[in-house]
Amino acid sequence: QVQLVESGGGLVQPGGSLRLSCVVSGSIFSIHRMAWYRQAPGKQRDLVALITGDGKTNYADSVKGRFTISRDNRKNTVYLQMNNLKPEDTAVYYCRHVQGDYWGQGTQVTVSS
Questions:
Q1: pLDDT of 65 strictly over 80
Q2: Helix (H/G/I), strand (E/B), else coil: 29
C-alpha cells in the first residue's frame, strides 16, 4: 500500500520561505513522477509543480522562479522549496504520486503579516 506523508507547512510572512517534504512508502519511488498541488478555500485543486523520475520539472506560471521541486530517491522523498511567498500562495498543499493517483493528507501553508 502506497502512503504519502507531507510536512513542513506553517505560517510565514510575505517574502518568507518554507520547505515542504513528502515521504513516500510502499512504491518504487525512484521511477515515478511526483507532484505538488494546492487548494485554496473555495477554489479547485491546482498543479503547482511536477518532477519526473529522471528529474525533469514543470511549474505553474504563478510559482516559476520562486518555487523549486526536487527529490531524493535514497530517502523516497520529494520536496517543494518555496521562496518569496505571497499571500496568494496560502492554501493546503498536497503531494501526489502521479502514476498511482495516490495523495497525501495535505499540509497548510499560510502567508500573512
A1: yes
A2: helix
Residue 31: band (very low, low, confident or very high) from pLDDT cuts 50, 70, 90: confident
Question: Does residue 23 contact residue 89 with C-beta atoms inside 8 Å?
Answer: no
Mean pLDDT score, 42-51: 97
Report the relative pairing of strands 10-12 and 107-111 from DSSP bridges: parallel
Q: Any idea which residue has 511549474 for its cell?
A: 59
Q: CA 75, CA 73: separation in Å to the nearest integer?
A: 5
Residue 82 is inside which H or E element, if any? strand 77-82
Written as nine digits, the cell of 81 is 522549496
- The set of residues, in sequence order, having a beta carbon less than 8 Å from that of 37 and lying 6+ positions away, is 45, 46, 47, 48, 93, 94, 96
